[in-house]
Amino acid sequence: PFQFSCHILDKDGNLTHPEFLHDDETDPREPLLKALMEAIGSSGSIIAYNAGFEKRILNDLARWFPQYKELLFQWTLRFWDQLVIFRKYYSDYHFKGSNSIKSVLPVIVPSMSYSGLAVPDGTAAQITWNEMIRLPDGPEKQTLYNNLLQYCGQDTLAMVKIHELLQASQRK
Q1: What integer pLDDT is reported at residue 113 of this predicted model?
Q2: Considering the entire predicted model, what is its pTM?
Q3: Exposure winner among 28, 112, 135, 158, fewest CB in 10 A?
């Protein structure tokens, strides 16, 4: 892992957005983990879209950094997976048979889409990051850096918007 984005909604409805993107050719894992530890905190739900993927990353980090194994395990217990809702309970023909966040988001939050992003998916993010870390500091590297932040931030902001819509539908 080389990047994360968290949108954190506190009990008062305040939204913060800690994020991390490793920008050079050194090993990104421990700096990412330390930044994530600062961002996540010790309480509250961790909402993900496909929590299984995120838990696998945390398990990998626990193997690489056994001194954090217990903390990372505790985080896995806090996950709440939005994907389950769209696999089991919410379907729309506009999803075109896919439950991915990229298919669901533009249907239920029409103002948000991945189509205009320079980095539209995880594969493109990996390719862009591999290119970015090899560049010297300058405008081209900064553009790629910003594109990666925008893509990853879109994912977590999407989960906030989905969460808000699901909560609103519960109140009806």
Answers
A1: 86
A2: 0.91
A3: 112
